[in-house]
Design brief:
The complex is a heterodimer of chains A (207) and B (568).
Chain A: E1 3-4, E2 14-15, H1 16-29, H2 49-62, E3 73-80, E4 83-89, E5 107-114, E6 126-131, E7 138-142, E8 151-159, E9 165-170, E10 174-175, H3 181-184
Antiparallel strand pairs in A: 1-2, 3-4, 4-7, 5-6, 5-8, 8-9, 8-10
Chain B: H1 7-13, E1 16-24, H2 40-63, E2 70-74, H3 76-82, H4 85-108, H5 113-136, H6 141-150, E3 154-159, H7 166-169, H8 173-191, E4 197-199, H9 209-215, E5 220-223, H10 225-229, E6 243-244, E7 250-253, H11 256-263, H12 282-285, H13 288-291, H14 323-351, E8 358-364, H15 375-387, E9 393-395, H16 398-404, H17 435-453, H18 460-476, H19 480-487, H20 491-514, H21 519-528, H22 546-549
Parallel strand pairs in B: 1-2, 1-8, 1-9, 2-3, 3-4, 4-5, 5-7
Antiparallel strand pairs in B: 6-7
Helix pairs in contact in B: 2-4, 2-5, 2-6, 2-15, 4-5, 14-15, 17-18, 17-20, 18-20, 18-21, 19-20
The chains are: A alpha+beta (207), B alpha/beta (568).
């Protein structure tokens, strides 16, 4: 197949068929207003809507996002005064998961509460454990008693004899939101914007 | 930028202030890869029913010399779409199609006088939209907003680049910083000025955010009521004066009372039985054969914007909409709104310290005209009524207020949002939690890439790929996608947007690392995601060193250092 190039220092070679298709697509679809707005965009490459679609779909198929990390990791996120969110990845320790041999210590998420962050260490901080008994790698965590200005961190690992804990990864430190006025009010506060629609727009009226 | 009133006016004539803020935002829904795309209608509907009527209102207020004050937050995604040639072209097509439908309706309803009167109204409405859009502003709505900003009566502010929900992006400060800085840069390059105020997406605040805002030159932002009511220390004047976050940035809080009067689906004005019913639309009501040319692919029913019924009441057959009655009700509601603010200010006057109270009333702009058809008229009545000297309520922008009364109390607002329950649970729950590990991982990889490249020369092609990767990250971070996943509306689209933007990032990341950048594919991504033309990938370096090293790194391809492709 003959490949063509633009002669403008482009390294792109196009077959006669591709040239024809692009030409037809441009004639058919390329409106005068079509612009990417990119200052660096090399105008010599023109793509039809169909080509854009195909490229978009191919990339979407081939590069599906996957959250896997080479190293074990656990991340905490604040939700509200009563809840945190944790997600984790065991990296190369993935063989340790729920449903393994019962003799093995179960995977455990250890949540440390650290009211005074600077003094917090694994040895001194209060903590509670959550046994991970499902294959899921993320979980909402209910806080036993919401306390204002409490910092939290977490570790993912397994318990061992005594109070021992083998941590595969430690999390970031986060602050749970205050448990103030809004939290103690009814959660059905109608001033909150409960019914925005798909486009992020306004309220909806009952039909 | 905003006009200040002499202090004597503030102190002697009026007892308190009312600041109305409209937040205009839509996610980036531009799809050049399709001849037409349903979600682009979100923009077209909002332009027709909200933004153009809003501009019409501003023009009328201006020509009547009304001394109003209004703040409008324009999101960077919306700004970009309003300036986009392709969407402008498609919008004209959309508007002509609506006009054609309204004309067809004149014929169909010729034996139904009540309906025909409404069909005429819609024809006039679309013609008016076309006139404002094409003749008055030549397709550039931003010019219209700029014009009114120049009068000092309209204050324009902005928000995060793609409306990223900052409390859940805060695993990385660079992510938050880039959302904020790119948002402000987009505003500046399109509106020609720096905003004083910043709309936190979903009013999502966490302690410490004020530092990033201060670094970006922001003077004030908004939180929901409990963000200030639960501040540390607790403020003396509740939500009725701003607080200084300790670094000079002021936090204004939403007033619960005025919010409820408009927002509440049960008690709010928009649910009044005389108002137009949003959900009664001929796109869903008329024969498919008749309506086919105006719906999706001729098969899937969608809103057309032509609606003939009023809310009427629960469990009652819908009655025909009566515009005169509805507008009279809107005026009545505007008067009620101002009266209630006056009563509020009277009450507050007795309880507050020497500061004059400000009632902050923020709303989604798209509520007005789109969801609440009469909302724009209501707003116009409110602004006209409040501008008269017959009561103690004075309209003010937050910038006006800060010039006159800098916040006296230093306090740190509490983490909060204006979403359901007041915190982050709407944006992280069992319907959408899967997105966060993916978003955070992509962010980490982008930062690592910026770190690895620091000090190395990059070719123009590599730089394009790196900048496009940064665009993909920002687009994936929009708060709209987890919101839609939770609300359950157009879930497939939200899923696809997140996964496509992340896949595009992954593709670019992989190509850059392997030094195998396909220019054709890159061009395709640049065409599809053509937002933020001035973005600089180097800003993803966690130490923010990008701006200092960029231009002299652009070397000839022959000089580039291929080591950047090595995997970490």
């Amino acid at each position: 197949m003959t490949f063509l190039h633009s002669g403008y220092n482009s390294k792109i070679n196009l077959s006669a068929k591709e040239i024809l298709e692009i030409s037809q697509e441009i004639s058919r679809n390329f409106t005068p207003c079509y612009s990417s707005g990119m200052p660096e965009l090399v105008e010599k490459i023109r793509l039809s809507p169909q080509e854009l679609l195909e490229i978009g779909e191919e990339i979407g198929r081939s590069f599906t996002p996957k959250a896997s990390y080479p190293m074990p990791e656990v991340v905490l996120l604040p939700v509200d005064p009563g809840h945190l969110y944790a997600y984790w990845d065991l990296g190369e320790k993935r063989e340790i998961s729920a449903g393994d041999n019962e003799d093995k210590s179960p995977l455990t998420l250890r949540i440390y509460s650290q009211p005074e962050e600077e003094q917090a260490t694994d040895d001194t901080a209060a903590w509670f454990d959550i046994i991970i008994d499902s294959p899921s790698t993320r979980q909402q965590v209910s806080l036993p008693s919401p306390v204002d200005d409490t910092a939290y961190s977490a570790a993912i690992g397994t318990c061992c004899e005594g109070d021992g804990f083998i941590a595969f990864a430690h999390s970031n430190i986060i602050y749970a939101p205050h448990g103030g006025a809004a939290w103690h009010q009814s959660h059905n506060n109608s001033t909150y914007n409960l019914s925005k629609n798909a486009s992020g727009q306004g309220i909806s009226k009952s039909a | 930028m905003t006009k200040s009133l002499p202090r004597s006016d503030y102190a002697s004539c009026r007892q308190g202030f009312l600041s109305i803020i409209l937040h205009a935002h839509l996610p980036y829904v531009r799809h050049p890869e399709y001849d037409s795309f349903f979600e682009e209608n979100w923009l077209f509907e909002a332009m027709t029913e909200c933004y153009l009527p809003l501009i019409g209102m501003l023009d009328r207020l201006h020509s009547d010399n009304v001394d109003y004050r209004l703040t409008l937050s324009l999101s960077p995604t919306l700004i970009s779409m309003l300036r986009d040639d392709l969407l402008q072209t498609r919008y004209l097509k959309y508007l002509h199609s609506r006009l054609e439908l309204a004309e067809k309706e004149l014929i169909r309803t010729r034996k139904q006088p009540e309906y025909q009167k409404l069909a005429r109204l819609y024809r006039r409405f679309f013609l008016n939209a076309l006139s404002i859009y094409q003749e008055r502003y030549q397709g550039d709505l931003l010019t219209a907003f700029k014009k009114h900003q120049a009068t000092g009566k309209l204050e324009l502010i902005t928000t995060a680049a793609t409306h990223g929900f900052l409390p859940l992006l805060n695993v990385s400060e660079a992510a938050v910083r880039n959302q904020i800085n790119t948002g402000i840069a987009t505003f500046k390059s399109n509106l020609g000025c720096t905003p004083n105020g910043f709309w936190l997406p979903e009013c999502g605040y966490y302690p410490g955010l004020e530092t990033v805002l201060a670094d970006a030159g922001i003077k004030y932002f908004f939180v929901d009521s409990h963000g200030v009511m639960d501040a540390n220390p607790q403020p003396r004047n509740s939500v009725y004066t701003p607080i200084n976050c300790g670094n000079g940035v002021a936090a204004f809080a939403r007033d619960p009372e005025s919010s409820k009067q408009v927002w509440s689906a049960k008690e709010g004005y928009p649910g009044d039985f005389d108002y137009r019913e949003y959900y009664s639309d001929i796109g869903f009501e008329l024969d498919l054969d008749y309506i086919a040319p105006y719906i999706l692919d001729g098969e899937t029913r969608i809103n057309t914007g032509i609606k003939y019924h009023r809310v009427t009441g629960e469990n009652l057959p819908k009655q025909v909409y009566n515009p005169r009655q509805a507008l009279a009700k809107a005026y009545e509601h505007a008067q009620d709104f101002i009266d209630k603010r006056q009563q509020q200010i009277d009450r507050l006057g007795a309880a507050m310290d020497e500061s004059q109270p400000i009632i902050v009333a923020p709303y989604d702009a798209e509520l007005f005209g789109h969801w609440w058809y009469e909302g724009t008229y209501w707003l116009e009545c409110v602004l006209r009524l409040a501008s008269k000297d017959t009561h103690g309520v004075q309209l003010a922008s937050c910038s006006d207020y800060l010039k006159q009364q800098p916040p006296a109390q230093i306090a740190t607002p509490a983490a909060s949002t204006w979403g359901d329950q007041g915190y982050s649970s709407y944006w992280i729950n069992e319907t959408n939690d899967w997105i966060y590990p993916l978003l955070h991982k992509a962010e980490q990889e982008m930062e690592q890439l910026a770190r690895d490249i620091q000090g190395l020369a990059v070719t123009p092609l590599q730089r394009r790929a790196l900048n496009q990767a940064a665009r993909s990250i920002l687009l994936a971070q929009a708060s709209d996608w987890p919101f839609i996943l939770k609300s359950g509306t157009t879930i497939d689209y939200a899923n696809k947007r997140i996964t496509d933007h992340l896949a595009r990032f992954n593709y670019l990341h992989d190509s850059i690392r392997k030094n195998r950048i396909n220019e054709r594919y890159l061009t395709a991504l640049e065409i599809m995601d053509n937002i933020f033309p001035d973005i600089d990938f180097q800003d993803y370096h966690p130490l923010g060193v990008g701006k200092n090293i960029k231009s002299d790194r652009l070397q000839d391809a022959a000089q580039h250092v291929p080591d950047i492709v090595s995997h970490r």
